[in-house]
Amino acid sequence: MPRRFGRTPGGAAVDLFTLANAHGIEIDVITYGAIVVSVKTPDRDGRLADIVLGFDDLEGYLTRSRYFGAVVGRYGNRIAKGQFAIDGRTFQLATNNGANHLNHLHGGVKGFDKVVWNAEAFERSGESGVVLTYASPDGEEGYPGTLNARVTYTLTARDQLVVEYGATSDKATHVNLTQHSYFNLAGEGSGDILDHELMINADRFTPVDDGMIPTGEIAAVDGTPFDFRKPTTIGARIDADAEQIRRGAGYDHNFVLTLADTPALRLAARAVDPSTGRTLVVDTTEPGVQFYAGNRLDGSAVGKRGHAYGKRSGFCLETQHFPDSPNKPAFPSTLLRPGERYSSKTVFTFGVAR
To answer: What pTM, to 2 d.p., does this model score?
Structure first.
């Protein structure tokens, strides 16, 4: 049964659902923003810790959120100038990012991270989960079409959090949903993540301009600070003297996954915290993953148990289509037309390196 987590300023009830399995893993999800509030997993000695950044109460998500744990949409990541054209008609979206807020980020001023979703819990043969649905009306944040979105979180007996997205629209529109949890495998509030070892299954990435909009180039990672094909500590090259590093103030870039042109699940990334042994493996059907190293966290987002989340105290692996795809014909398309179904799946597997 869900528990009441709070109410929005408008009076809408926000509920919390707890998913648990036989191995002691517990994941809390709330209906506001479809947010993953906590993920508790054991270390190599069996000690549980919460490995995602967040807040103890709803007020934190309402007033201090950096998209902690949320589903972002309709379009995760950036769209240049908040504009795209469909069938010759230009649509102007809400702009909330970049110099003078000229670009569109994560669905706009009030994206999917700031609405209350409907929810229904389920249990089946060792698995527990919750289905969240939201009907985004035609014109919300400037997007065409009524979009019926669905997100399913399932915690399996194999210590996997399976995230499945689906959507339909009655008008042609663009859709790119992702999950925006910030991970710290040593435990939230335990310092920075620079000693975490990371592998990203990508030999290319999409460079960005000064506004963090992709230039349209798909560049090789070979010989750059973006080469994570072999496990490398996040901090090894995060302050390298390189233009792309300077533009992102560290890592905040889309990586083009190997075998990205196949619809099946594929390995996206693997992270390990040497101090605790906790591991995180990410598989996805998406063609890209945004690796963000929390460069712009500054301690102002005081989170759980009074922890001030400072610079690089958590990292994100946001599986996705590429930023600004609606304006980059060479990128994989994010266009959804009536009669079609948007479908995406990402699996987060929690484990321990012995």
So the answer is: 0.97
